[in-house]
Amino acid sequence: MTGSWPKDVFDRIHARDPDPWKVETSDYERAKYAATLAALPRPRFQSALEVGCSIGVQTVLLAERCDTVLAIDIAAEPVRRTRERCANLAHVTVRQARIPQAWPVGRFDLVVLSEVLYFLDRTDLTETANRAADSLAPDGAIVLVNWTGFTDTPTTGNEAAELFLQASGLPCVRSQTEASYRLDLLKKEKKI
Fold this sequence. Notes:
globular, Rossmann fold
């Protein structure tokens, strides 16, 4: 497949399996979520954007550390499941949106892009990095998590991370590589 993966691919994936990436049951996912939360540079955030929320498992974890969370996904079924999972969390908003074309309006002091970037082609990935950096509040952070194993996506996890880092223009203040993924933390300097 050439180009960014379209919405209908994700719709088909979720029609076949309500939890296609086993985010509810996988030890890998649990460990990755714990590492993501541990990498956050401070205990609390005002406004978080989670891109590619899937079925909302990580959304609930982020909601514990953020005053507001906007969780987005390209496909309808994961959005529906995330809304159900977060129904009792009034500070969480869930929307269906395709990035970078429908990048949310607003300022965020935390942006999380976990295992979503490599589904984008290089053009969309560059635009996503630009939009993420532009929407980041001063002293804000972006967390990238990318699968580094084999994939048939437009870019590999390592390529996606490196392209994002370059295009965003933000300094990477932490990078860690695990057996199957890499985690990068970018920060926007606070203006004095």
